[in-house]
Amino acid sequence: MSRLLSDLNGAFRIYAVELIALCAQEQIPVMIICTRRTAEEQAEAVRRGSSRVAHSKHQDGLAIDLCPYEEFSLHGPDKLAWSRSEPAWTRIGALAEDLGLRWGGRFGESSPGAGDGWDPGHAEFKT
Question: Global pTM?
Fold first, then answer.
């Protein structure tokens, strides 16, 4: 699994860099958790329960997972351990959406009964 911005699709990379810059401007230090992953890594993420889709936009370099540094320092990179009460999540989500990105904190909202799709560190290119 990559954490390199250079592994992102060029069309999406500019948005990812801007999102990180906006987080810094808002004084929300973030860790890059994931940029690109292989099909095997995606299958493992599904097995662990940290993803629910067989094919993720991470595989195409069109998504990034970020975590507020304070949350990361408490719980590490496992998003299943992250606290939902951390207010930085909604601010990161608002910044992502202001850039025209799809925010993972809204996953599941459009599919009632689909379960809790809350993925607060995820932002992806809308295609």
Answer: 0.90
